[in-house]
Amino acid sequence: MSLVNCPECQQLYKELDEYIDSVKGNTGVLINVLHKAQEIFGYLSEELQQHVSEKLDIPLSQVYGVVTFYNFFSMKPKGKNQIKVCLGTACYVKGADKILERLQDELNVEMNEPTSDGLFSIHAVRCLGACSMAPVVLIGEDDYYGRVSPDEVSKILDKYRRAE
Ligand code: FES
């Protein structure tokens, strides 16, 4: 959708531009602006990176370099509830791959892509710092599920579906 025809997008870009104007010239401005852009839009599309490059007068290649270097930046949209499945050694030996498989079957979605309703996306991580509870799944920022079995997956997802 072109920006011209999307009042909501225009509003979001306006919000970002106001932030950019308030921090322009500060040190570390690019990372701060990218954080703000991701907070507003949810992810950093190519179009958005282009916009940041123009507004800050920084080459697009440099913006892209920073976005791809840090794993907290995402170039793809994520689901409302991000499901992080730990595939670290402790979790893997306790069957994390089976949890991942069940999640993908239940949600019918590829890794790192949002479900068609936008409610979930699945991401693999190396360790969630809770190895004693392996296998571990984290939903959102705080909902840790430990010693998860594949048969529990559906019940866990229902909790978030019901919250809608
Ligand atoms: S390896 Fe999974 S929480 Fe540490």
UniProtKB/TrEMBL annotation:
Q: For binding [2Fe-2S] cluster, which residues are annotated in this chain's numbering?
A: 86, 91, 127, 131
Q: How is the cofactor bound?
A: Binds 1 [2Fe-2S] cluster.
Alphabetical UniProt keywords: 2Fe-2S, Iron, Iron-sulfur, Metal-binding, Ubiquinone
Q: Which InterPro entries match?
A: NADP_DH_HndA-like, NuoE-like, NuoE_dom, NuoE_N, Thioredoxin-like_sf
Molecular function terms, GO-annotated: 2 iron, 2 sulfur cluster binding; metal ion binding; oxidoreductase activity
Q: Which Pfam families match?
A: 2Fe-2S_thioredx
The Swiss-Prot or TrEMBL record lists the needed cofactor(s) as:
[2Fe-2S] cluster
Family the UniProt entry places it in: Belongs to the complex I 24 kDa subunit family.
What is this protein identified as?
NADH:ubiquinone oxidoreductase 24 kD subunit
Query: Lineage from the top down?
Result: Bacteria, Thermotogati, Thermotogota, Thermotogae, Kosmotogales
